Amino acid sequence: xxxxKKASRLASEQLERNLSLRERYLLRLHLAYCAGCRxxxxxxxxxxxxxxxxxxHKD
Length: 59
What we know:
InterPro entries: Znf_put (IPR027383). The protein is an all-alpha fold. 78% of the residues lie in helices and 0% in strands. The chain has one domain.
């Protein structure tokens, strides 16, 4: 099992690069039992989408 700190790092990194099979497995396993990290992962995705939308629409 990985810690919440490691899970949050992997959740962030998966937005920038493809995680290895092992990293994806460890992250999914952690997210299966940690509601706080599941929320955090959704927030990362939301922030990424909001930033990209802002960048596409700025003058």
